[in-house]
Amino acid sequence: xxxxxxxxxxxxxxxxxxxxxxxxxxxxxxxxxxxxxxxxxxxxxxxxxxxxxxxxxxxxxxxxxxxxxxxxxxxxxxxxxxxxxxxxxxxxxxxxxxxxxxxxxxxxxxxxxxxxxxxxxxxxxxx
Length: 127
Hints:
Helix content is 18%, strand content 34%. It is α+β, with helices and mostly antiparallel strands.
């Protein structure tokens, strides 16, 4: 597995979270998740302005093997989506930690406390 970025937080549902300024969180899927899924063929991103709850399904990725739901790590509002991935979903396979899927403006950053650090995520996936 590729090196796991230490500065990110990780959800048990295999999303990574990067905290930006102004309560904005950039969200993608982990290298472990993209490897398990295989070659991504399609990504359905959440609608801009959508209100989401923590752990609410808000996006879907489809691969040659299966489809998988993605979840918001926190409650908030979807403020950006990475539209480039609509035409090139394979970017997630190639660079999972650079290929963010959506940004959510968090209502309460304390919800990040329920996420794992890199060591916790590695332990969860048995690495």
